[in-house]
């Protein structure tokens, strides 16, 4: 189901991709409530195709009808934010010829008068009627102007005019289609980055829960495993070299002391005692739906911007000093936590939520590094190029880069989601009965290593004693 947008949102979108000459010719103030006739005039001035101009005209009729129903004191944008389903229901009931909404014949007359139907496949009255009915059934009068389904529908219904390279306004249509594809890919990258960040933080939470549950045994067990391994290597060395000199035997004793000292230091380390995090936001603070939506949008924007300004491929194309490059790489690793499985602080993590304040600090640091070379970095919302050809070339090049970035991020998502260590830890925590079995197994392993280490130390002491005795006899 598509999001709902108001007419002013669509006008803003079309203005954002307008060439300067087109922009200067527009006569309507942004946010003004246009009549269907004025919406058609706008579409004509922007050189839009019939189908998308029709969506604007139908949206105008729906919006004006909704405004009448709510009363003059109501804000449509506020109502849409608070009551999207009610607004959608009102849009479902939109019917040409009912109330203030023009009939299909009246819409047809407006389009004929505007000149938009000249040379169009939709100049036929029945073809036009069919498009109106299909547009209403697919709710194109509610969805944003850059919705891919609307663009695809417009191309399929209007033949050469909607296709890339068509003779009638082909360049303009091609630009709009490619521009919409770029916007969609930019949003997909941001959405995938948020998905990757969310999965990374979920992994971190599983790791925290696992340490809270098993850390008091796991940490000493891991140290005993290392001690057992080090002693085994040392014993094997002495066994395979029965003729060690006195000086070599002293080196073995020093190594044994180092091993014991390191094990003693590690045993004093306390396991993680972080309490379980609850709630929906950073630090476990509960969030309502509006706060969650605002968080996701801000996080997507921040992650996308940091990704763009710190990605190794991007910084490799700029003239940074080695120190600047290292700082950017560090910032990249810090923001993209999955790259190094970095440990996050309590303030950064809630229920799969990372603090946006941390991301803003990282972004500020990155932007200052870019400013040092006299360039603030590229904007992700503005098409570059002075001429239509340059802007189109930039869009096509940018789409190619985004396609590669999307492949890279999806590969990272698969790697993070399939992290074997995390999946095994998660399996130890669910179901709860499994926890007792894992703890019992760890305790058995702990006892076994303690026994084996005692035997190893006893054997090594004997080998050293024999070695010293043999050296004295010699």
Helix content: 55-70%
Q: Helix count?
A: 18
Describe the biggest sheet?
none
Radius of gyration: 33 Å
Tell me the total number of β-strands: 0
- What form results from the Cα inertia axes? elongated
- Mean pLDDT level: 77
Count of discrete structural domains: 2
Low-confidence stretches: 19-26, 159-170, 271-279
* Beta fraction: under 5%
State the end-to-end CA separation.
Answer: 90 Å
Structural class: mainly alpha
Q: How are helices and strands ordered from N to C?
A: HHHHHHHHHHHHHHHHHH
In terms of quaternary structure, the protein is single chain
SSE blueprint:
Blueprint: H1 7-16, H2 20-25, H3 36-45, H4 50-70, H5 76-82, H6 84-92, H7 104-114, H8 125-137, H9 148-158, H10 170-240, H11 246-267, H12 289-310, H13 312-315, H14 322-335, H15 356-372, H16 388-417, H17 420-429, H18 432-473
Question: What structural keywords apply?
Answer:
18 helices; 474 residues; 0% strand; single chain; 2 domains; mainly alpha
Overview of this protein structure:
- There is one protein chain.
- The chain starts with 6 loop residues before the first helix and ends with a helix.
- It is elongated and about 115 Å long.
- It is built from 18 helices and no strands.
- It has helices at 7-16, 20-25, 36-45, 50-70, 76-82, 84-92, 104-114, 125-137, 148-158, 170-240, 246-267, 289-310, 312-315, 322-335, 356-372, 388-417, 420-429, 432-473.
- The chain is 70% helix and 0% strand.
- α3 packs parallel to α7 (104-114), α10 crosses α12 and α12 (289-310) runs parallel beside α15.
- The protein is mostly helical.
- Residues 19-26, 159-170 and 271-279 have low confidence and may be disordered.
- The protein folds into two domains: 7-163, no CATH class; 169-474, no CATH class.
């Amino acid at each position: 189901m598509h999001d709902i947008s108001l007419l002013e949102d669509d006008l803003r979108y079309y203005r954002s991709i307008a060439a300067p000459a087109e922009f200067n010719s527009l006569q309507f103030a942004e946010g003004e409530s246009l009549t269907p006739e004025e919406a058609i005039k706008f579409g004509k001035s922007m050189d839009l195709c019939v189908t998308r101009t029709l969506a604007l005209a139908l949206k105008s009729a729906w919006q004006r009808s909704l405004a009448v129903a709510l009363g003059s004191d109501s804000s449509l944008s506020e109502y849409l934010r608070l009551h999207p389903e009610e607004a959608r229901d009102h849009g479902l009931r939109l019917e040409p010829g009912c109330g203030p909404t023009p009939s299909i014949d009246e819409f047809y007359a407006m389009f004929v008068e505007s000149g938009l139907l000249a040379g169009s496949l939709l100049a036929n009255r029945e073809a036009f009627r069919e498009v109106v009915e299909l547009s209403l059934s697919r709710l194109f009068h509610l969805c944003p102007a850059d919705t891919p389904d609307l663009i695809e529908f417009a191309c399929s219904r209007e033949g050469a005019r909607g296709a890339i390279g068509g003779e009638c306004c082909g360049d303009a249509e091609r630009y709009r289609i490619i521009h919409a594809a770029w916007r969609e890919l930019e949003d997909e990258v941001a959405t995938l980055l948020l998905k990757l960040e969310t999965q990374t933080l979920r992994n971190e939470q599983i790791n925290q829960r696992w340490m809270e549950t098993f850390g008091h045994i796991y940490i000493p067990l891991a140290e005993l495993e290392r001690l057992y391994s080090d002693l085994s290597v040392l014993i094997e060395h002495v066994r395979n070299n029965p003729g060690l000199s006195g000086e070599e035997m002293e080196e073995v004793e020093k190594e044994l002391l180092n091993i014991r000292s390191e094990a003693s230091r590690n045993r004093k380390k306390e396991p993680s005692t972080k309490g379980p995090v609850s709630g929906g936001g950073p630090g476990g603070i509960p969030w309502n739906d509006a706060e969650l939506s605002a968080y996701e949008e801000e996080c997507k924007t921040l992650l996308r911007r940091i990704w763009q300004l710190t990605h190794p491929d991007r910084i490799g194309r700029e003239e940074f000093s080695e120190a600047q490059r290292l700082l950017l790489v560090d910032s990249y690793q810090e923001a993209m936590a999955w790259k190094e499985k970095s440990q996050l602080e309590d303030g950064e993590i809630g229920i799969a939520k990372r603090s946006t304040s941390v991301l803003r600090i990282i972004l500020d640091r990155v932007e200052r590094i870019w400013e040092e070379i006299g360039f603030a970095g590229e904007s992700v919302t503005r098409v570059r190029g002075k001429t239509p050809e340059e802007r189109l070339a930039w869009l096509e090049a940018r789409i190619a880069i985004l396609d590669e970035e999307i492949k890279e991020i999806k590969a990272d998502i698969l790697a993070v989601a399939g992290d074997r260590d995390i999946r095994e830890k998660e399996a130890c925590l669910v179901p709860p009965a499994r926890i007792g079995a894992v703890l019992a197994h760890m305790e058995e392993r702990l006892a076994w290593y303690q026994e084996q280490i005692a035997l190893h130390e006893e054997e090594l002491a004997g080998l050293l004693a024999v070695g010293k005795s043999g050296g004295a006899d010699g």
